[in-house]
Amino acid sequence: MFRFRSRFVKMRMPWLASSLICGSLVLSFLLVDSRSVSALPIPSNSVRAIPAFARKYGMPCSSCHEVWPKLTAFGQQFKDNGYQMGNEKDAPIYQNPGYWPVTFRITPNWHRENTNRVAVDGTPGEASITTHGFDWSGLDFHTAGTLAKNITFYVLPSSDNTGKFHFEAVWGRLDNLAGSPWLNIKFGKFELDNLHSEKRIVTLSSVGGSYQNYHFQPLVSPGSSATNPVVAETSYTFGIGDNQIGVEWMGHSKDDRTRISASVLSSNDGQPGLTTSRGYDGYFAASRAFEVGSLGLQRVGGFAYLGQAPTYFQFSSGGAGIGGTGIGNKGFYRAGFIGMWYVKKLDVTTMFFHGWDSAFLATGTRAIDPLPTGAQSPTWNGGLIESHLTFNPQFILINRYELIRMSRQVFATNPSNFGDIDVGTIGFRYYPFISSRAGFAFHTEYSIKRQRGAAPTTGLDLNTSSLMFGFDFAY
Questions:
Q1: Are the CB atoms for 104 and 9 separated by under 8 Å?
Q2: Whose CB among 156, 183, 327, 382 lies 3.0–4.6 Å from 168's, allowing a Cys bridge?
Q3: 119 - beta bridge partners?
Q4: What is the pLDDT of residues 235-264, one digit of tens each?
Q5: Which residues is 397 bridged to in the sheet?
Q6: How many of the other CB atoms lie within 10 Å of CB of 84?
């Protein structure tokens, strides 16, 4: 049971949250642009929060979440142990009258989007476009738990806001093999063992609802109305924040202070049907947690993704490559270090990120062809600092800054800062109640992104921003 530290906080927090909500609505309407067109959709983020577990064990959601969907250390240990408490309620035959092993989540919202340079017909070929209006997010259906002792499952059908469904996660896991927490095997489509989980992100807007470092791919060359009319990213698709398909070994100490994992994954960025090549990737992560006096549990770790992608298809039909016959694989990698620091109610996550791509992947060149003149393998470094001030389990302030800096361009003639990214995000979430039945949050967020030289045809900076207010609920 959580208790607030002062009666003043108890009395003032609902008033403060109400004031911030009203203020955000006023701000939203003040920022409305009368020249807007129809609102753009908020993407589905497939964020994880499962009240079904709280209902099963008769515990409040705050037992496992600092604020949902963000996990506490206890919540992380419960997850690592295969969603098991180690008591008689773990068995699937145990049925609390209030237990329903399915959770759905959706977020009706109002949002405003702006992009300062969008390719349009006519001269000068770019225009600033603002959209705003009422909308809703995609829908997630979570079902997870135990099939038997130490056999865990998770299935997540997820849709965008048009109702188009796909499977975001489908996996089974053998837990505590030979009675050891160091032997856990997961098989299927799952989130990588990222300490800073994008699936548990507490920001939801179209700009701030993902981590830029997890999905960054270098731009090839600046846009130009004369020679290269559209600025483009590298030719293959990959995101370390995307759920991948494969098998994972994960081990942890009994107190979950030490964690280590290794995965073998199909080289298709989590897509079904073996659509690209017959290659495999590897992902490795490890971390260690430690107490620092009364400040709380700190954790540091590292991760590395070693991947490959085909550069052309061995066979084609009707001019299109035949799925699964991609060859001429070339490599890429992503690696980094992360620290999660707690000072009582304040937590700060810091991350350093480094990436490298083969010049063949960066330029879209087949492995059997010569590279374009001046082509080189791009490298870049990134950073993230994200803070949360959790006044109590019902109210949290959010702040995040991300940056990406190119250290070597795809072409030596590109400007040295071409493609560099800066993103700032602020927001808050207020939870009017905490229960074992459901979750509900008033969500307000503003996020802005600048990418150097990424305008479609002029080669100027591309700025995008998103303001969002919504009701985020799960049951």
A1: no
A2: 156
A3: 126
A4: 788 999 999 999 999 999 998 899 999 999
A5: 389, 428
A6: 19
Q: With contact defined as beta carbons under 8 Å apart, do 281 and 334 qualify?
A: no
pLDDT the model gives residue 2 = 34
pLDDT in tens, 70-113: 777 777 677 777 777 777 666 666 666 556 678 889 999 999 99
Give the number of C-alpha atoms closer than 13 A to the C-alpha of residue 350, restricted to the C-beta side. 6
Q: Quick one: which of 228, 191, 188 has its CA closest to 211?
A: 191
Residue 372 CA to residue 407 CA, distance in Å, equals: 20
Question: What 3-state class would DSSP assign to 426?
Answer: strand
Average pLDDT over residues 56-69: 67
The structure tokens 């810091």 sit at 350
User: For the chain, what is the mean pLDDT?
Assistant: 84
| Helices and strands, number each (H, E), in the chain | 5, 24
Mean pLDDT of 2-9: 37
Contact present, 398 and 388 (Cβ < 8 Å):
yes
Element (H, E) at 390: strand 379-392
Structure tokens at 402: 């991300």
Buried-state track 1-12, b at ≥16 Cβ within 10 A, e below 16: eeeeeeeeeeee
Residue 366 phi/psi, 5-degree rounding, is: -65, 145
HSE at residue 167, side-chain half, CA atoms within 13 A, is 15
Q: Is the pLDDT of residue 406 over 90?
A: yes
Look at 385 and 326; give whichever has higher pLDDT: 385
Answer for the pair 447, 412: CB distance below 8 angstroms, yes or no: no
Two tokens, residue 375: 């082509």
Separation CA 287–CA 296 (nearest Å): 16
Backbone angles phi, psi at 78, to 5 degrees: -60, -45
Instruction: For 8, list phi and psi in degrees, rounded to 5.
Output: -60, -45
- Cα–Cα distance for residue pair 308/289, rounded to 1 Å: 32
Query: Which pLDDT score, from 0 to 100, does residue 96 have?
Result: 61
Listed residue (362, 15, 399, 387) closest to 208, CA to CA: 399
367 residue type, one letter: A
Rounded Cα gap, residues 282 and 261, in angstroms: 11
Q: Supply φ then ψ for residue 227, to 5 degrees.
A: -115, -40
What's the pLDDT at 230? 59
pLDDT of residue 92: 67
Pair of tokens at residue 169 = 């996660």
Is the predicted pLDDT of residue 202 greater than 70, yes or no? yes
Shortest CA distance to 180 belongs to which of 106, 268, 278, 254?
A: 254
**DSSP code per residue over 328-381:** S-EEEEEEEEEEEEEETTEEEEEEEEEEEE-HHHHHT--TTSPPPTTB---EEE
Using 50, 70 and 90 to split pLDDT, how confident is the model at 205?
very high
Q: Let me know: does 430 contact 468? Beta carbons within 8 Å.
A: no
